[in-house]
């Protein structure tokens, strides 16, 4: 329904300007400090040569962010403050003008207090661009983009704050609910995704959360305004939402009863929405909290119950504005029965989410790994992390089917990379199917996993060195592990080619066990490419070709940890907690053990180096490596098949 023409009321405009104009002035001052003064300071100090401006949002980005999310809310609160105060409400509504006219004047002045400071700041920036050398900082198109994006972002936040003001009779609650509403879509989606995984085995929460979450909340989107395009679909949606909310606010304002000042909510329908919305949010948050802190399903259920009770009580407390709230067991039980029924429905999986495996003909490529690719994929490597060969696609599908057939044992605790399987199918129609499994019977899948992980295609995807031309390698630096300064730098082209060939041979010959566990770390390798990009690798005892090459060229002694660097080693059984313990505390605990093994023979020290691991989280034996000619030491452990016989014989 279009707005009717509203006659201009000069007295009302002056009233609004006197009571609320200071916010627009404050906003203008804030913009001056954030943009023109900051840019002028850069120019006067001759720093414009060194400043890296993405666009105008790079100038005092934090100040701009605070202004964008606070000024519109303040305007909405003070413009419609008369709805929350009886005397002001009686005065405004006693004027010989309609509610439509009052509303249009308020919104018009509010928009003016937003757009005028933006236009004035843009004008100053234009004058700077015309008179000063600021082309390296921003262009004329940057000014227009900054003004457009800032205006749309503030308008959508303003429209939400106005809409909330129409349904509440408390100014403080209007401000609080505005920010809750702005963040609610993203926050509720995060909580739902984090909790659904307890009901649906294989639910890949990170995959769904990796979508553009910021676009779901204007507050989150405001943190990335420098990445926005003024002609983007996101801003168009925000503009349409602003118009819709402002129109809806007018409808609610015309139906609002004036006597409902100082009430939490003026429309009865909003009260149950708020109450049960708060209950659901608190329930999901509490369940998620206990899942992260305890990892036990019984504590998660306890969190759901406690969170829902607290949320239900707080909802009544806010609505009734008193601590003396009578708990409605009937309403709470009805809510919990509904939640349980919905949970059972999800568990029954009517859409066959848990059992779905895509048909081979529909699959374009597949990601498989023991960690989520969402935060680890290297976009600049130029290599795909997906598998495309038919043999690997068939093997991954077979693995997925076996997981479903054998019975999934998913852990509620934090995922453990040692027993995790992440799958993402990219289908021919462009869609994706993502699953996440944390298996307690992980060892039974090792033959299939080995077939996939040991394939040439998989190794090519995860080892960047295997698809880098030798001629692009400019330098290799090898730094010995441990508390010492030993390193070798290789720049000779012939030696670089031989070294890369030896490393490539080792990578191609690695078994799954060698790829997932690291023993005998000798040194760290940095491979510098012609494009100034660096590849980082470890040199350990599972790299025989590279080890032999280093020994043949006479560089091994100066590049890696050897027995000649260690004076002796103290070994004991790990019968104390290694987690969250400093190396100094571990050393003291080892020295106090009643049963110790001291290793000082060179051949045994070398064998200990070759079989020890620096990741000492779950080692069966703990060792302290003491260095020669220094008081330094290092903590390592032994576990599994990599415990030397002389250590086993001593303790067992």
3D architecture notes:
The chain is an alpha+beta fold and 652 residues long. The protein has helices at 10-34, 36-44, 61-79, 86-93, 99-131, 140-167, 171-196, 205-209, 218-221, 233-255, 270-293, 297-320, 329-348, 390-406, 446-453, 456-462, 493-509, 512-516, 544-552, 556-559, 583-591, 602-611, 645-651; strands at 363-369, 420-427, 432-438, 473-480, 487-490, 521-529, 534-540, 566-573, 597-599, 621-627, 633-638. The strands form 3 sheets. Strands 5-4-6-7 form a 4-stranded antiparallel β-sheet. The chain is globular. The model is unreliable at 377-383 (pLDDT under 50).
Q: What can be said about the biggest beta sheet?
A: 4 strands, antiparallel
Structural class by helix and strand composition: alpha+beta
Q: Gyration radius, to the nearest Å?
A: 33 Å
Any idea what the shape is?
A: globular
* Strands in their spatial order, largest beta sheet: 5-4-6-7
CA distance, first residue to last residue: 86 Å
Tell me the total number of β-strands.
Answer: 11
Taking pLDDT < 50 over at least 5 consecutive residues as the criterion, the unreliable ranges are 377-383
Helix fraction, binned, reads: 40-55%
Average per-residue pLDDT, rounded, comes to 87
Q: Report the portion of residues in β strands.
A: 5-15%
Counted by DSSP, the helix tally is 23
């Amino acid at each position: 329904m279009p707005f009717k023409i509203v006659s201009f009321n000069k007295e009302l405009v002056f009233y609004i300007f006197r009571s609320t104009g200071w916010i627009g002035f404050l906003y203008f001052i804030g913009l001056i400090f954030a943009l023109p003064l900051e840019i002028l300071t850069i120019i006067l100090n001759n720093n414009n040569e060194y400043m890296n401006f993405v666009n105008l949002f790079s100038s005092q980005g934090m100040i701009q962010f605070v202004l964008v999310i606070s000024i519109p809310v303040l305007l909405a609160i003070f413009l419609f403050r008369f709805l929350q105060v009886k005397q002001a409400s009686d005065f405004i509504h006693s004027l010989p003008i309609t509610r439509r006219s009052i509303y249009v004047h308020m919104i018009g002045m509010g928009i003016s207090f937003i757009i005028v400071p933006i236009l004035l700041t843009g004008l100053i920036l234009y004058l700077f661009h015309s008179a000063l050398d600021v082309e390296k900082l921003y262009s004329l198109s940057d000014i227009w983009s900054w003004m457009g994006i800032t205006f749309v972002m503030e308008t959508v936040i303003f429209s939400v704050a106005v809409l909330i003001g129409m349904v509440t009779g408390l100014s403080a609650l209007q401000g609080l609910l505005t920010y809750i509403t702005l963040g609610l879509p993203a926050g509720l989606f995060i909580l739902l995704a984090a909790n659904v995984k307890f009901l649906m085995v294989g639910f890949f929460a990170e995959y769904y959360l990796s979508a553009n979450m910021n676009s779901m909340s204007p507050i989150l989107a405001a943190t990335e305004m420098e990445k926005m395009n003024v002609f983007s679909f996101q801003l168009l949606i925000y503009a349409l939402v602003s118009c819709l909310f402002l129109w809806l606010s007018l409808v609610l304002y015309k139906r609002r009863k004036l006597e409902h000042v100082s009430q939490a909510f003026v429309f009865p329908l909003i009260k149950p929405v708020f109450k049960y919305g708060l209950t659901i949010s608190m329930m999901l948050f509490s369940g998620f909290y206990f899942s992260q802190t305890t990892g036990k399903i019984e504590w998660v259920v306890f969190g759901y119950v406690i969170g829902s009770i607290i949320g239900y009580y707080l909802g009544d407390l806010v609505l009734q504005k008193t601590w003396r709230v009578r708990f409605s067991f009937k309403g709470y039980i009805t809510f919990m029965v509904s939640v349980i029924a919905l949970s059972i429905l999800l568990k029954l999986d009517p859409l066959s989410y848990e059992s779905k495996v895509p048909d081979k003909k529909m699959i374009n490529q597949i990601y498989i790994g023991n960690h989520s690719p969402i935060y680890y994929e290297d976009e600049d490597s130029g290599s795909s992390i997906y598998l495309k060969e038919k043999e690997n696609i068939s093997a991954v599908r077979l693995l997925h089917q076996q997981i479903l057939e054998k019975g999934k044992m998913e852990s509620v605790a934090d995922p453990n990379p040692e027993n995790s399987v992440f799958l993402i199918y990219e289908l021919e129609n462009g869609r994706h199917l993502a699953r996440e499994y944390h298996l307690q019977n992980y060892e039974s899948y090792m033959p299939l996993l080995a077939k996939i992980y040991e394939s040439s295609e998989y190794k090519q995807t995860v080892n960047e060195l295997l698809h880098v031309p030798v001629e692009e390698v400019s330098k290799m630096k090898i730094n010995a592990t441990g508390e010492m300064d030993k390193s070798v730098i290789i720049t000779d082209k012939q030696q670089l080619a031989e070294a890369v060939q030896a490393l490539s041979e080792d990578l191609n010959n690695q078994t799954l066990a060698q790829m997932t566990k690291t023993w005998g770390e000798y040194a760290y390798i940095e491979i510098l490419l012609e494009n100034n990009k660096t590849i980082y690798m470890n040199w350990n005892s599972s790299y025989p070709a590279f080890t032999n090459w280093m020994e043949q060229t006479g560089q091994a002694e100066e590049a890696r940890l050897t027995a000649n660097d260690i004076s002796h080693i103290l070994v004991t059984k790990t019968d104390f907690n290694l987690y969250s313990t400093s190396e100094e505390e571990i050393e003291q605990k080892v020295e106090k053990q009643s049963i110790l093994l001291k290793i000082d023979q060179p051949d045994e020290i070398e064998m200990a180096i070759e079989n020890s691991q620096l990741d000492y989280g779950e080692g069966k034996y703990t060792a302290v490596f003491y260095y020669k000619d220094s008081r330094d030491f290092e903590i390592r452990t032994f576990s599994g098949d990599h415990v030397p016989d002389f250590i086993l014989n001593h303790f067992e």
